[in-house]
Design goal:
heterodimer, A: Fumarate Reductase Cytochrome B subunit, about 60% helix, about 0% strand, B: alpha+beta, Alpha-Beta Plaits, five-stranded mixed β-sheet, two-stranded antiparallel ribbon, 23 helices, about 10% strand, transmembrane helix (chain A), metal ion binding (chain A), heme binding (chain A), nitrate assimilation (chain A)
């Protein structure tokens, strides 16, 4: 069972994540959008959305530091375990709170503002439920596990982090996760579930972060014929009907 | 010099009667879909008035367009690149649906299903956004014809500085109509605002388009466009805008709004311009110089040096010829009667307007003086500061002088032509007084008043060797659309996702349309399996299928043609002139 949960399942999810994105990009460029609802309601969005998104950026950065940078490296740099935790909590808790509060505002808005609610698909609702659970569990792990140490102290950098890194060199050790507290197990499990859902939800907009805007010229010129092998206009050329030459 | 060609439009506001035919036909052609209910690529505003969306011209509020910084560079008024990326999670200055209007339908079902009762059942309005019953309080043309103007029109941002002088008392005010489409600017701030780089300007004809596959719905373009002519489709989550009907333009026929314009007030033609000079012209210091600066960017297609450079830039020969005949060039640069809309936004707009003389004429008429007399008109233009200042706020960033010049030319044309019409000797002194020759004045009259179809629209088709790629020529295999029909509904990720969700822009073969419109003979409109498309009816002949066939159908057969032009729809008729029973000819068997 633990092999399935902590070896097979993550790989299935990551495979779906990668292949799913490639497939969606090929199949559904037109549907690849933020699906913004700002046209319907702006006041709550103006507070909730930046709070949530900037909070999430902080959270993602925190996860990168916690999961990818091995403890041995920070030890070698002379950063003590306690000092690391203070830094992690000082950065992580405000970011986490921003994300949770932002998400709460956004979910409240989605439910109470009529037009926004009627533009919410089942797909969105399921995604929000999983995302909300992952975030809630993450907050619980941080506050209860690390800050208040309810149920004993657990150093995720000895358990979850090595396991996560091992996934990427195809040697995951399921026992590392077996020993983790239930909160961490659930958080990791649901996070991978979210990765599997990712390509099929509006979350794909994360990968269109328009960083190229900083360097590109303001005005884009394009020739009518500049997409080789593709007909002009909205309709893509059909397979089997490609032009010669 | 880097010569580029731009498809441009001029509208003669004196002829606009505010009938909204352009808006309606445009909507039928482009935005009668879910998610675009509130979208009007073309709209007609009554001025003075708020416009659409409400008060869009107040850039202190909406922050569209460019501003010039102290060091002479242009900057997006809504903030530069980093600013955009930092506010990407929620656009700080996006109009909400309430600034447009909440689209609605009526609950017609109650009318049909209501039981017998004492009071008559009523179809109540229902919001198309929330699905709930709403109280209609605003719409696209709520202040049409100065309706409620004491409350609404007084808020017109263009009345700044002259507000105390403008009266909205009946019989003391003035008004005219302003039809608006996307300006297809030379320096488009919507394209510059797009973080994804999805909005682009076509190299061939300068039409500004949104790549629907690249748009990610960041909504910065909506803010960036000072004319608020980029709309957010709330179903697909993508930006949409006027396309200058590019599929029609590519085969050489005018846009839907121009084609259906009852007043024949729209002119379409090419402008050649020097792309290297655009930024410089857009950054001149004094706003009053922007009109002249933009005109200086345009290149004279009659100048051999320009022609040589144009050829070197890959502009085909027939396009250069079309640029020479372009009515837009004549109105903007030869007669200098067309003015840009809001040059102060520094986007270098390419839909220009001939300001209306009618507010001035109306005033003279009401006083009982001769409204076609040159001296009366000239004196009135000078005396009637209010309409002129208002027009200047719209067209020349507040500089009265160019507006005055244009109005004087129009007034001169009016009185010069009156002499000719009444059989009196034309007075050469009238054109002279506005710096024109008699020939020029007569040619201008022909272009503005006679306005023949072939003079109004000089549109060179896109090039034959590229024709297979054009949207409208439909040279790909007839069965290639087959799988579209199977997946007509949307994909799994919401409206419009997946391949099936996208309807091709072309529904009809416009090459056929063009042949029909340019044919000299009376040709009946082709019918598509019993459908009658009046939108494409050019008024000549009777569309087949409009009325049921009578035994004497032969009476309505096309009149004998002039010359050798064949009626396009011949295969639709049997030998005796009756429609073929299956009535499908012309739909699929037409020229491909």
């Amino acid at each position: 069972m633990s092999t399935f949960l902590w070896v097979i399942f993550p790989y299935i999810c990551l495979a779906i994540f990668v292949v799913g994105h490639v497939w969606r990009y090929q199949y559904d460029k037109f549907g690849w959008t933020t699906r913004s609802s700002q046209l319907y309601e702006s006041r709550l969005l103006r507070i909730g959305s930046p709070l949530f998104h900037f909070g999430m950026l902080g959270v993602v950065l925190g996860h990168f530091i916690g999961l990818v940078i091995p403890q041995s490296l920070t030890d070698r740099l002379g950063l003590s375990h306690e000092a690391y935790h203070v830094i992690a909590l000082a950065g992580g808790i405000p970011a986490g709170i921003a994300a949770v509060v932002g998400l709460a505002i956004l979910v409240y808005r989605r439910r109470t503002v009529g037009p926004v609610f009627s533009a919410t698909t089942v797909n969105d609702k399921v995604m929000y439920a999983v995302l909300g659970l992952v975030i809630a569990l993450g907050m619980w792990n941080t506050i209860a596990g690390s800050l208040l140490t309810i149920g004993g102290e657990y150093n995720y950098r000895d358990g979850v982090s090595p396991w996560f890194r091992q996934i990427f060199w195809f040697q995951p050790d399921a026992t590392l996760m077996e020993d983790a507290p239930l909160g961490f197990q659930l958080h990791a499990f649901l996070a991978f579930l979210l990765f599997a859902m990712w390509p099929f939800t509006r979350l794909v907009h994360v990968f269109s972060a328009p960083l190229g805007y900083v360097t590109r010229p303001y005005i884009v010129y394009r020739s009518r014929d500049d997409r080789p092998g593709v007909a002009t206009g909205t309709r893509a050329q059909k397979r089997g009907w490609e032009r010669v030459g | 010099m880097r010569v580029m060609a731009q498809m441009a439009m001029v509208m003669n506001l004196d002829k606009c009667i505010g009938c909204h035919t352009c808006s309606v036909t445009c909507k039928q052609a482009w935005t009668n879909r879910q998610g675009t209910e509130y979208v009007w690529f073309n709209n007609v505003e009554t001025r003075p008035g708020l416009g659409y969306p409400r008060g869009y011209e107040d850039q202190d509020e909406w922050r569209g367009g460019w501003i010039r910084t102290d060091n002479g560079r242009l900057k997006l008024r809504a903030g530069g690149r980093l600013n955009k990326l930092l506010t990407i999670f929620s656009n700080p200055k996006m109009p909400s649906i309430q600034d447009y209007y909440e689209p609605w339908t009526y609950d017609y079902e109650t009318l049909l299903n209501a039981p017998a009762q004492e009071t008559f059942p009523v179809a109540r309005p229902q919001s198309l956004i929330s699905g709930k019953q709403i109280n209609i309080e605003w719409s696209a043309n709520w202040d049409d014809d100065l309706g409620g103007s004491r409350e609404h029109a007084a808020k017109d941002p263009m009345l700044k500085g002259i507000a105390d002088k403008v009266k909205f008392e009946f019989e003391q005010t003035f008004m005219f109509y302003l039809p608006r489409i996307c300006e297809h600017c030379l320096n488009p701030s919507c394209a510059a605002s797009c973080p994804s780089g999805a909005i682009y300007k076509r190299e061939e004809d300068g039409i500004v388009l949104v790549d629907q596959d690249k748009c990610r719905g960041w909504r910065m373009c909506v803010t960036g466009c000072p004319y608020k002519k980029v709309y957010f489709n709330h179903k697909t989550g993508k930006a949409e805008k006027c396309t200058f009907c590019y599929p029609r333009i590519e085969v050489g026929i005018p846009t839907v709004c121009a084609e259906t314009c009852v007043g024949r007030l729209r002119y379409i033609g090419l402008m050649l311009y020097d792309a290297d000079k655009v930024l410089e012209a857009a950054s001149v210091e004094d706003e009053h110089d922007l009109y002249e600066a933009q005109r200086s960017v345009f290149l004279d297609p009659h100048d051999p040096a320009v022609q040589r450079e144009a050829e070197r830039a890959g502009i085909p020969g027939d396009w250069i010829e079309a640029a020479k005949k372009s009515p837009v060039w004549r109105l903007i640069s030869e007669y200098k009667v067309a003015l840009p809309l809001h040059p102060e936004y520094r986007t270098m707009p390419m839909v220009w307007y001939i300001p209306p003389l009618s507010p001035v004429v109306d005033v003279i008429k009401d006083t009982g003086f001769d409204a076609e007399d040159k001296d009366n008109l000239f004196a009135a233009i000078d005396a009637l500061r209010i309409p002129v200042e208002y027009l200047a706020n719209l067209f020349t960033a507040g500089d009265v002088r160019p507006v005055n010049d244009v109005l004087r030319k129009l007034a001169a044309m009016r009185s010069y032509m009156r002499d000719i019409n009444l059989g009196r000797d034309p007075q050469a002194s009238i054109p002279e007084s506005v710096g024109m020759t008699e020939e020029e004045m007569y040619e201008m009259f022909r272009l503005l008043a006679i306005a023949k179809y072939s003079d109004r629209y000089v549109i060179p088709p896109a090039h034959g060797e590229q024709a297979h790629a054009l949207e409208e020529l439909a040279t790909d295999c007839p069965v290639s659309g087959f799988d579209d029909e199977i997946f007509e509904t949307s994909g799994p990720f919401g409206e419009g996702s997946g391949r099936g969700g996208v309807t091709p822009v072309a529904v009809e073969n416009l090459k056929m349309l063009q042949q029909r419109q340019t044919a000299d003979t009376l040709v009946a409109g082709g019918s598509k399996r019993g459908r009658v498309n009046l939108l494409n009816w050019d008024g000549r002949g009777m569309p087949k299928g409009l009325f049921p066939d009578r035994a004497s159908a032969g009476d309505q057969a096309p009149a004998p043609g002039r010359g050798d032009t064949e009626p396009v729809d011949d295969p639709a008729l049997l030998d005796d002139g009756q429609a073929r029973p299956d009535n499908t000819a012309g739909a699929d068997g037409g020229p491909r």
